[in-house]
Amino acid sequence: MRASSRWLRGGATFVAALLLLTVGGTAVGRIASLLPGSGAGASNGPAGLPSGYRTVVPTVLSGQVGLAVGVGGAPAGVVYDPRVASLYVVNSASDNVTVLSAVSGTVLGSVPVGSDPVGIAYAPQVHELYVANSGSDDVTVISDATNTVVATIPVGVAPVSLYYDAFNREVYVADSGSANLTVISAAHDKVVGNDSTGAGPSGIAFVPSTQELFVSDALANAVTVLGARAGRVLHSIPVGSDPTGVLYDPVARDVVVADSEGARLSILSGVSDDLLGSVGLSSDPAQVVLDPSTSELFVSDPAADNLTVLSAKNFTVIATVPVGVSPQGLAYDKSAHEIVVADAGANDVTEISDSTPSVLRSLSVGLLPQGDAYDSGAHEVFVTDAGSGSVTILSSRSDSVVATLSVGSDPDAATYVAGEHEVFVANLGAGTLSVISDQKNQVVATIDVGGGPTALAYDPSTHELFVADSPVNNVSVVSVVTDQVVASVPVGMTPEALAYDPSGHVMYVANVGSSSLSLVGGSAKAPRVEATVYIGGGPSALAYDSTQRTMLVASYSSGNISEIGGPQHAVLATYSVGSGAEPVGLAYDPAQHEVFVADSGTENVSVLSLPSGRVISLLEVGSDPEGLAYDAQQAEIFVTTFNTGNVTVLSDTIPK
Question: In the chain, how many H helices and how many E strands?
Fold first, then answer.
């Protein structure tokens, strides 16, 4: 989008915060980060802990937080049931369990339980939920098939947490008031054992390889280790102050303990039962949950009303994410890749997506890369190098340069035509199209289109390529079968972008000079402008939303994205990209229902979530981002950055 629209360049420079839930980067050794004296800010640990472990103050970042869903009074715990795709939320003040659809977020029902319920566990083999009622000293059993109570089991005094052991099909209940674990057979819903623990058991984790239970003891500031089958205490490990939440990481084989009044996590070896060290936090943690898909730990912080996110590989703090008031219980929803938070002080739950886009890497190409196109047949990305009159071909699988081909002067845009196995390149300075065979990676034809071609889009219904000729306010129509110009259509002033709407069989033309859209239809032999839509703000880029069957239009001057659809081609919605935004490129991601916006004003790529209507990430990609190409197979976005000579590769989810 240069030459005829050089005025689009420049504008105010805007420094934006990186709104990533997860930040990419190479991890240092996970154990090295826990060794005495490693890293900055080493400090002494609490009594009983070695000194010199790194304390990291979290950087406050903004995560992708969904809408909060109201539940009962003072929700304290939550668990995800994948069989019925539901979330079960324990409400300690209203003595019930709210059932939420994990798909729609709507309330499906409410199940009355015992007095002051605080903990919950799911047993997949028997399709039941177990609820610890601390006020009535019992456990309520709920069937997930009927969402009704099927049993009530008396246990010890003040049960506060539960753990389901899938290997032995038993439920362990921490009875904080009677210093014991009650063992319940999930097959028969009856008590089969009673094991002594430390003075104040509060959280439970199970290590399958050693058949050991790690029980946090809030009164003794320790973790008690028991043999699950023997039911006897093996030893006690001193940790931080008032340990509560505890979990086992099966990949790292660590046990992570939230020291709720010590502003830190204690890390124990699940193999040797040794204390490895601790990680300092900015406030006091309550509960902790592992996201196995990203190897991240989410820690609830009731005092600060947020979650701390840490890498489970090296225990560095990645982000803090604001949630509701006094967050307590946590659960991981595998199907939606979300962390679910019970906000005890707000009577709701908050859902946080772990699928926030991130920058993966940067690849060197030719001079002044302008546009790019993804070739799904060859799994290659074709990058137009405007400054060197060439096209760089990248393998999207190996991120290596496959070939560099000379084309016409000032190549501006490229598009892939699957049926022909060809990539067409618009040479702005030469007034031509170069046709490249993706099987030979050679230029096989040159088509004279006149003027200055700046954009391309393919109509598969007519096997024709539409070419925006910006200097003469015209669109040329080229047959990809004969490689000849077959028609010419006058449009608005300075056409700069094209996109095809297959649902309406209409080609959209963005006329930046007249702030309008020309909708070209008609027959293959006689294409014509069937409608003109005035959009305002200098429409500069287009992308088709295949999910909603609407057209997304970026307006350079206003910094907005408009959604066009319906029989009248009306503006259905307008989304703000942000202050100082100057969008010049778009790519639609159907997997996440998101739009990636190349923003020359802030020199970032903004990620706009269409369901929420807001920007969820700003990705730093390099100077003057313009072209974008989406690789659905790799779930990656390729971004040309004009002034750096690079292509930046983005992931549409956190790399797994």
Answer: 0, 58
* C-alpha span between 255 and 207 (Å, rounded): 8
Strand ranges in 535-611 using DSSP code E only, listed in sequence order: 539-545, 550-555, 560-565, 570-576, 583-589, 594-599, 604-609
Q: Exposed (0-12), middle (13-18) or buried (19+): which is 461, by Cβ within 10 Å?
A: exposed
d(CA 20, CA 601): 19
Rounded Cα distance between 268 and 236, Å, is 12
Q: CA 116, 118, 123, 129 torsion: positive or negative?
A: positive
CB 330, CB 78: distance < 8 Å: yes
Tokens, residue 4: 């005829």
Query: CB of 423 within 8 A of CB of 637?
Result: no
Which residues lie across from 573 on neighbouring strands? 563
Q: Look up residue 206 and give its amino acid.
A: F
Q: Which two tokens stand for residue 30?
A: 């996970």
Amino acid at 481: V
pLDDT in tens, 188-231: 999 999 988 888 899 999 998 888 999 999 899 999 998 877 67
The phi and psi torsions of 61 (rounded to 5 degrees) equal -125, 165
Output the pLDDT for position 49.
28
Contacts of 541 (CB under 8 A, 6+ apart): 1, 496, 497, 510, 553, 554, 583, 584, 585, 586, 598
Q: State the DSSP H helix or E strand holding residue 270, giving kind and residue range, or none if neither.
A: none
- Contact yes or no for 86/108 (Cβ under 8 A): yes
Instruction: Please check whether residue 381 is in contact with residue 372, taking contact to mean a CB–CB distance below 8 angstroms.
Output: yes
Phi (first) and psi of residue 159, to 5 degrees: -65, 135
Q: What is the DSSP string of 392-443?
A: EEEETTT--EEEEEE-SSSEEEEEEEGGGTEEEEEETTTTEEEEEETTTTEE
**Cβ of 552: how many Cβ atoms within 10 Å?**
26
pLDDT in tens, 493-503: 999 999 999 98
What is d(CA 83, CA 122) in angstroms, rounded to the nearest whole number? Answer: 10
% residues pLDDT > 70 (the chain):
87
C-alpha pair distances (Å), 620 with each of 562, 606, 653: 23, 9, 16
- A 10 A CB-CB count for 441 gives 17
The residues, ordered by sequence, that sit 6+ positions from 171 with a Cβ below 8 Å of its Cβ are 121, 123, 130, 139, 162, 163, 164, 165, 183, 184, 186
Q: What is each CA distance from 640 to 264, 357, 637, in whole angstroms?
A: 42, 17, 10
SS3 assignment, position 554: strand
> In the chain, what is the greatest distance between 2 CA atoms, to the nearest angstrom?
87
Token look-up 């700069």 returns 496
Average pLDDT, the chain: 82
- 393-427: string of b/e by CB count within 10 Å (b at 16+)? bbebeebeeebebebbebbbbbbbbeebebbbbbb
- With cut-offs at 50, 70 and 90, classify the pLDDT of residue 22: very low
Q: Hunting for tokens 């939920």 — which residue is that?
A: 129
* DSSP labels, 159-175: EEEEEEETTTTEEEEEE
The token duo for 490 is: 């006058």
Check if the beta carbon of residue 154 is closer than 8 Å to that of residue 195: no
How many CB atoms neighbour CB 610 within 10 A? Answer: 21
Tokens of 373: 């196109």
Kindly report the CA angle at 640 between 550 and 20, in degrees rounded to 5? 75
Residue whose tokens read 């003027």: 451
Identify whether the C-beta of residue 415 lies closer than 8 Å to the C-beta of residue 394.
Answer: no
Q: What is the pLDDT of residue 192?
A: 93
